[in-house]
Amino acid sequence: AIAVKNMASQIDSIQAGGGGSGSGDLESVLDGTVTSISSDATAIRTYAFRGCDELVSVNFPEALSIGSNAFYMTQKLSSVNFPKVTEVGGSAFYKCPSLVSAIFPSALSLDSSVFYECEALATVSFPLLTNMEMNGFRGCSALTSANFPHLTEIGNHGFYDCALLSETSFPEVLTIGTYAFNMCDNLVTVNFPKATRIENSSFRQCAKLEVADFGALTYIASSAFSTSRLLHTLILRTETVCTLSSVSGIGATAIAGGNGYVYVPDSLVEQYKAATNWANYADQIKPLSEYQEETA
After folding, report:
1. In whole angstroms, what is the distance from residue 271 CA to residue 189 CA?
2. Using one digit for the tens of pLDDT, what is the confidence trace for 40-85?
3. Is the four-CA dihedral 183, 187, 189, 194 of positive or negative sign?
4. Helix (H) or strand (E) holding 269
5. How far apart (Å, rounded) are the C-alpha atoms in residues 110 and 33?
6. What's the average model confidence in pLDDT over 246-268?
7. Residue 22: count of CB within 10 angstroms of its CB
């Protein structure tokens, strides 16, 4: 009850859902009498609704920020409305198993583990988001698409084990953290036009990944694509040789097995074939013009 009482100065009204009385008694959120909340509060404090297991929907049209762990493991929460929130604190919706959509039209940043293992989360919209810390959508096993038009950095384990994720759009991302897409088993193609770095195991064990296209990549860390066994096409469009920090970067892929190719700018083919670690895959390095001809 303490967590909810701490919100008293910031919640103006409670509207009852289900069989609730709508009396405005904050304690009724905890005992399940009220399952729906509407408020003009501008901030939601840390742990505000933790333990409110009967809470189903919340509407905060004026809120600008959500504190860490605010809805931590709120078991029945399925509908949320935060049109003005710009900052979401760490673990704010951690393991909310009934949450099906997260639409935050004004959010600019997500702290760590915000939607960690929200297993029913299928729809997300963050049109203005620029920063996402580690574990942002880790274990969101129902998520099928991710469209983040302004995101510049994907934190470590950002989409780890999003098993159904098949469509992605990250036109502004510059860095991809460790294990960011590890075990995203339904990814077939990925395209990152501005990414410059792929960290350790970013696309490791992506069971269906076949094609990866990068417009500005300069660094591939160890095990970046390791054991993504169907990966047969890696496209590197940068006009300088991309560093491959270890042969494991593309280890245990179709390319490593001699059944795929790395396509690079025509003028860099020989440099790639002689470069550290790339030399191990010299026979699999082809000019980009050949790829363009094959797909024409």
Report:
1. 26
2. 999 999 999 988 889 999 999 999 999 999 999 999 999 999 999 9
3. negative
4. helix 269-274
5. 31
6. 98
7. 15
Task: Write the CA distances from 20 to 23, 49, 98, 140, 256, integer angstroms.
Answer: 8, 17, 20, 31, 61
Cα 69 to Cα 55: distance, rounded to the nearest angstrom: 15
Contacts for 89 with CB less than 8 Å, ≥ 6 apart: 46, 65, 66, 67, 68, 69, 70, 111, 114
How far apart are alpha carbons 161 and 170 in whole angstroms? 18
- Its pTM stands at 0.90
- Cα 50 from Cα 73, distance rounded (Å): 7
For residues 234 and 212, give the distance between their C-alpha atoms in angstroms, rounded to a whole number: 5
- Tokens 């994720």 locate to 165
Which contiguous run of DSSP H or E holds residue 274?
A: helix 269-274
**194-211: per-residue pLDDT in tens?**
999 999 999 999 999 999
Token digits of residue 70: 């605010």
Structure tokens at 178: 């460790």
For residue 261, give the amino acid letter.
Answer: Y
| CA 7 – CA 11 distance, rounded (Å) | 6
| Torsion over CA: 7, 13, 17, 23 (sign) | positive
DSSP three-state, residue 60: coil
